[in-house]
From TrEMBL:
InterPro entries per UniProt: Caveolin, Caveolin_CS
Comp. bias regions, Polar residues: 1-14
Similarity remark: Belongs to the caveolin family.
Superkingdom of the source species: Eukaryota
The keyword Cell membrane belongs to this UniProt entry's keyword annotation: yes
UniProt membrane topology term: Peripheral membrane protein
Parts of the chain that traverse the membrane: 107-133, 145-166
Record PANTHER family: CAVEOLIN
Gene field: LOC127371961
Protein name: Caveolin
Amino acid sequence: MTTAVDQAETQLNSVEMEDERSKDKRQAEELMEVKVDVQSEDLNSTHRDTRPLIHDRDPKRINKSLKVTFEDVIAEPPSVRSFDKVWLWSHALFEVSRLWCYRFISLLLAVPVSLVAGLLFAVLSCLHIWLIMPCVQLLLINMHWVQTVWGSILNILISPVFTSIAKCCSRITIYLAKDEDR
């Protein structure tokens, strides 16, 4: 038998749970609005004419470890929670500050670092193409006899010795037993 008090408590609990669900839903909707605002701001950038050309800036997924979101850095367990507005503003400030700090730093560093990286890769490519590979090819062409002699030495002298050692050691068996005296 359920009493009127039990029924009232059940109704109160269901109302509280419904309030929590609606609060979580509103919070998620507000977070989505913040994300949409940040993304729409990004779409309104001055690069509209080049946007389709550079839509995927990491096609080979080199920097997939850098996909950090607010939830990856800050998380509140259910037992302790800040005010909803504090959480929303923290999330918004995190996203906006991360975006604008990255943009500012890349504005300062992107061109010089790109120039240095381009020069470095140009020098390394030039050295590889015009110095290293010709030397390697020269060695491979002129050292063919060394490869033949070394292969013969390995097959005639060294390979039989190690094969014999392997056959001798293949019969060795090790048994491990626990010492129960301790």
